[in-house]
DNA sequence: AAATGACCAAATTCGTCATTTGGTTCAGTC
DNA sequence: GACTGAACCAAATGACGAATTTGGTCATTT
């Protein structure tokens, strides 16, 4: 059974906390394991009891952001199945991306913060499996099946358009480009409206919402397990 | 009266051509004026008869791409005012961005191709005034006024959503990110459909289309003049 | 008037090497 | 068995001077 390092050791938790603070403050570049150990009040060697490599620790950092995002979404979906509607899920997704620094940094390819890690194969894998495009691939068919998206549009075209919209919102919300001049107070509402405009009015029959939420939760569980496996201690 | 260097000198045209080829092939980094002069079959000094600085020449290079784009759009609009419809203009805009290497590179902040020029204040200025956001600021009010976009949506929200959609399409079409997995055969049609979904059905009254096209042409003329001024010979 | 190319100062590159840094290990302590 | 920290060593750094390159100028030529 996969188990996270911090669940069985207080020092591992302190190391993670210290690493998180330091990376957020100064970035990966030039951050040494000695510094992390110092701030966590452990010796350098201790770090290697929990992670086999410096990079493992760092990748684990934003793996944990994804994990937290998954858990939050699962909680919301359980409490209120209505969250599974596209007009509610996509704004949440954008907000979640903004809220989690590492996901945000990965999304915007923030080299200052993440250093070479951005283009590292392992983090690329993370994004490929957990990124917005992968999500749409899974979610859109479910939405179409349960009358939460119009079906008078070919799947590929619809997915392409929705992907563009989502990436566009992510870019304008996350990145600080000079290009994106227009901004707005309540992005969530705009995203919601735009998604509805694209996918058409949501017309769920009885049970459709719950079924969609269940499918979403199942998918989240699968991803969570895979994610956990990839950042857990390899015994 | 602003006049482009290549309009009054054959050697200037050859220099531009040589520079263009070389930049597209190998990027700005490490490209010397001696090389450009060699390929253009002129002496180094000749280049400085037309441009006061190496950087002037390079900025002029993608200034000319914008100029070409403007001229193409103006021609299309003149031949067929219908092109001024949002559902036709935005796909064209995306396509134009793809077709012009320097605009594309500027959009995707391609450091390999453009080197430090990407984040240079002068090219930033170019993008700020000619980029997609600036365009929407001008175009959307016209569309709304002439029944080519729904007005039951606040201007800011609508602009924000449309901007996100446009940037999203630009990103997926231009950039080669691993994120954007979903792709499609005929992006133009998808863009068109997505724009229509966002802005609502176009319901122009008599004269609306022509008025929109005229406004677009007027705006293009203003931009073209400013652009020309900024890359023309400073006499 | 248009074009050239030798010329120069400033910047960049190169090669070399002593020094430091920093990820990882492991023998030993608590 | 959790933890330490001294020790190891491959890789990075930086100093530094020499050699080369290169953006820009200008007297001269065509």
Quick description:
Chain A is mainly α. Chain A has helices spanning 10-26, 33-40, 44-50, 54-79, 86-99, 101-107, 111-114, 121-130, 132-145, 155-174, 187-199, 208-231. In chain A, α5 packs parallel to α10 (155-174), α5 runs antiparallel to α11 and α8 (121-130) runs parallel beside α9 (132-145).
Give a verbal description of the structure.
The structure is a homodimer of 235-residue chains. Chain A has 235 residues and is mostly helical. Chain A has helices at 10-26, 33-40, 44-50, 54-79, 86-99, 101-107, 111-114, 121-130, 132-145, 155-174, 187-199, 208-231. Chain A has one domain (66-234). The first copy, chain A, has twelve helices and no strands. In chain A, helix 5 runs parallel beside helix 10 (155-174). The model of chain A has no long low-confidence stretch (mean pLDDT 90). Chain A binds chain B through residues 124, 127-128, 131-134, 136-137, 153, 156-157, 159-161, 163-169, 171-172, 178-184, 187, 189-191, 193-194, 197-198, and chain B through 107, 124, 127-128, 131-134, 136-137, 153, 156-157, 159-161, 163-169, 171-172, 178-184, 187, 189-191, 193-194, 197-198. Chain B binds a DNA duplex (30 and 30 nucleotides) through residues 9, 11, 32-34, 42-46, 48-49, 52-54.
Structural class of chain A: mainly alpha
| Chain-averaged pLDDT of chain A | 90
The SSE string of chain A, one letter per element, is HHHHHHHHHHHH
Main beta-sheet strand count, sense and barrel state of chain A: none
| Head-to-tail CA distance between termini of chain A | 9 Å
Shape of chain A: globular
Q: Output the radius of gyration of chain A.
A: 19 Å
- What is the number of helical segments of chain A per DSSP (H or I, 4+ residues)? 12
Give me the count of strands of chain A: 0
Largest interface: A-B, 39 and 40 residues
* Stretches with pLDDT under 50, minimum 5 residues of chain A: none
Oligomer: homodimer
Helix content of chain A: 55-70%
Work out the strand percent of chain A: under 5%
Number of domains of chain A: 1
Pfam family, one (chains A, B): TetR_N
Keywords (chains A, B): DNA-binding
GO molecular function (chains A, B): DNA-binding transcription factor activity; transcription cis-regulatory region binding
Domain HTH tetR-type (chains A, B): 9-69
